[in-house]
Structure formats: C-alpha cells, structure tokens
Amino acid sequence: MTSTHPMLATATHDEASEQFFIRDLKSYLGEEIEPFQRRIAERLDPGEGHNRRVAALFERLHEQDAFRAWASVRRTAQEQLWSVVSASVERQSETLNDLARQAPALGSLTLDPSFRTPAYLAEHDVHLMPGGYQADGGDSEVSQGAIMDRGGAVYMLGRNGGLMNDVRGHTLAAHLFARFPNFAPSTILELGCGVGASAVPVARYFPHARFYAIDVGASVLRYAHARSAWLGADIHFVQGDAEHVPFADESVDLVFSCVLMHETSAEAIPAIMAECLRVLKPGGIVVHLEVPQRYDSMDLWGKIRGEVERVYNNEPCWQVAISTEYDAVLRAIGFEEVAVGYQSATPHAVPGAGGFSDTSQGVFRSWFVVSGRKPS
Amino acid sequence: MTKTALPRAPVAHQNPVEDRLLAMVSALAGELSVARERLDTVERLAEAGGSLRRDDIETYTPDEPASLARTATRKRLIARVFRPLRDDAERAAAVNR
Description:
The complex is a heterodimer. By secondary structure, chain A is of the alpha/beta class. Helix content of chain A is about 45%, strand content about 15%. In chain A, strands 1-4-3-2-5-6-9-7-8 form a 9-stranded mixed sheet. Chain B is mainly alpha-helical. Chain B is elongated, with a radius of gyration of 19 Å. The chains are: A alpha/beta, B mainly alpha.
C-alpha cells in the first residue's frame, strides 16, 4: 500500500525534529497530565442533579490554575504545530507549486472566482490553522493544502493511516460494501473533501465511476487535485459549498462526506442533508461518516474535553454534530433504508467483510456512519 | 502567502501574560529538542567515522535503535520542562473537598 505521495511537504533534519517534538508534547499533555485533569473534574463535579452540569463544571475547572495551564499549553502545542508546518511548507512552496503543475493529467479542477466561504468557516480558524480551509494565495499556489495535509499527519499522530491519512476513506468504502453490496455507482460526489485524503481511496474502489469532490478553498483544491493525480486517481475537484451544492438535481448515484458535519453548523447540517437528497438520482445512496463518539453516551470528562476542543481548538459544531439524530433527520427528509451505527476502521475494504454494527469500538477503531437510499 | 491567525478566545480567568509565557517556554523547549537532536546526529556521524558536512547532517536518517533513543531523549526533555504543570495537576487532583 502507498505510504506517501510526491505532493507531501518534505521535512529537513530540523523540521522533522520540530514535528516530532509537537507530536510528543501533545502525547505528554494527553497521557501524563490529562488523567489528573479528569480527576480534578470528578472532584469538582456538581453532580448529576445539576441542571447545567457540564457548563458549571467547565466554569469551575477554570478556577483551577492547573486546568488553565494545561488548556493553555494544549492550545499552544496546536498553534506551534501550524507554525512549524507552515514555515516548512513556505520554504518549499515553489517546489510544491511546480510539482502541482507537473502532475499527471488526471481529473480536473473547477474554481469559482465569486465563491463565498460559509460564515461558520470564515469567522474562526478551524483547528487553529491560520487561514482555515479557505486561505488562498492565488495563481497556482497550493500551500494551504500542503500545510493542511502535513499538519493533519502530525495531528493524527499516525493513527489514521500515517502520512496518507486515508483510513476514513477505506472505512467508508467498507460501509458501502457491508450495507449495499451490489451498489455500483457511476457518478460519485464527496462533500468537504479537504486535500482528498478520503476521495483517493474511495475512487480506487469504484474505478469506473466519475468522481467529483467539492470544498471551499482554492489552494486546498489545487493541492488536492495535484495530490490525487500523482496518486493516479481521476477526480474532478470543484469549489463549492455543501449547503448549496453546484450540481443539478438527480445527478449523482452516491454522495458522501467524511468528518464534515462537526466542522459546519447547527443550521448547515439539515441543509446539507437536504442537498444530498436533491442531487441524488432516485435509488441513489447517501453516506456520512463522523467521529465515533455520541454525546449522550460520553462520560463527564469526555464532555468536558469536548468543551476544551470546542472553545480552545475552534470546533464550534462538535457537540451538535455528535448529538444530531441523523437517522430521524434523514427519514424526515425522505430517505429510505436509513441506518446509523459504527463501521470498523480498516486500511483496506473487502467486499463481504461486514464490519457494520451498533457498537462503537472506540476512537480510531471505528467511525460513526449514517447511510440511506433515495426512494426510486 | 501571509496569513494572520484570527482572534482566539482567552483561557477564562488566565492572565494573558501566563498564556504567552507558557507559549514561549513551549517554543524554547521545541528549539532545545531540535538542537539536542542535531547534536545527536553529529555525534552519531562522528562515531561512525563519517564526514560532518552540513549535507551529511541534513540527509542523516536514524536507524530504529537511534530513532528510539532520540524519542526517549525528547520525551525526557518534555517531562523535565513541563513537570511543574504535571505536579500541579496531580496536587489539584488529590485535594480533598
């Protein structure tokens, strides 16, 4: 299996050391200090009877020096990650732009000069990445995509398919094989494709389909197009917003997303679901893959940790995304054969292997999925 | 491309000076870790009797045992520098109500 690709920003001796440092600092904060934060939270828990237990506890924790310092350094580590990765990408930006121009002639790129980034992405830097998904230096530059790809590999600490960051795509294909074994889409659309980390593996499982992928940022899309072409995938990237998909009614057989919902908004989630129904042909399939936690079944610390991510890592829609009753939403819109559950994470999808159940095996071991069919 | 990070929420009740100092300490720890690792590369190249040109340092790739030793050094450095935060959290966790 491929373990890297030509578009991935390289690291000098010292840049590699810097990235290892961030990785290990994040591990230290998570493994050596966070367990004590959990115990502090248990000590300060206002109790199950409290009508705003999580919010009250989050406030109480902020009265603790130890908690504030941990939250502060945790954020610093994330900012440091983008700082070192950005510097590394800027150093080699001309090389990366050239590599993008020299990519094999596969797929296409359609940018929209009048495109407006949705407010929920424009008003803060998601994951504290300066410039977010949408920053663009214009012309043929790919640096925001390069930063996102390299930073993602460090952020994931190698847990999601190493430098390829592609386990979610394989897992989504595994879900299609498990639930719709005879499904052979001729047109596929991914919403919120980012650098194409999931699009590339999904495209490989359906080599005869015409594959489209949309996202908001021109630089990220240029990078995604070059990255997928170098990996031999024939993918058509289009600048577009998942709430207003630039595709005709009944034009695709499969529409999917991977960890998109928690980066959107409470208003966007149902709007995106309705767009999926609109663009699907009758009998078409929708699949959305999300993080495997569900808010109701999280323990108290999990909820507090989510608050830390929401406020200090700019994940404003996190709680909504893992609380939404996706099966009810999809049925209400008009989808049939709707199912929600967990798909076992896999680096290679195999028809007939199943792997879909109603039990989560935990973070990075399985992913939450909702899928359904548009009535014929 | 110049990108300025958008404003971020302050950590509630934290003096922004503390936030900045922690960020500077983290950055310094990172710089020290990089310098320590570069010295390790120089030592290993010298030990192997090879040349110490910049190119040799830049292209050096540690083997598995060297990589494990460097990770252990890095983790020890992080544990030393950030120990006060860990100890403070441990004490706060142990306080009786």
